[in-house]
Predict the structure.
Amino acid sequence: MLSDNHIDLELALRKIHELGMVDGDLGYAYWYEVGRLLQRAANMQAEIDLLCNELERCRATRADANRAVKQRRRSASKAR
């Protein structure tokens, strides 16, 4: 499951850099930190997406294993 909130990170960071250049030293420091937060958020979202995919694979594997166990139990009870 991928995030529906994809933005062009490169474009956003370029715009943030432009804003920082216009605002002088203090503004630049502020916008630099905003840019870093945006990059970290994008990295975290990528990790969340990866973990969601891994969780879905684990759930599918577990469901397959549960079906196999149930099938073996049914076969064993029929054999009795």
About this structure: The CA atoms of residues 20 and 32 lie 7 Å apart. The chain has a mean pLDDT of 90. The chain has one domain: 9-79.
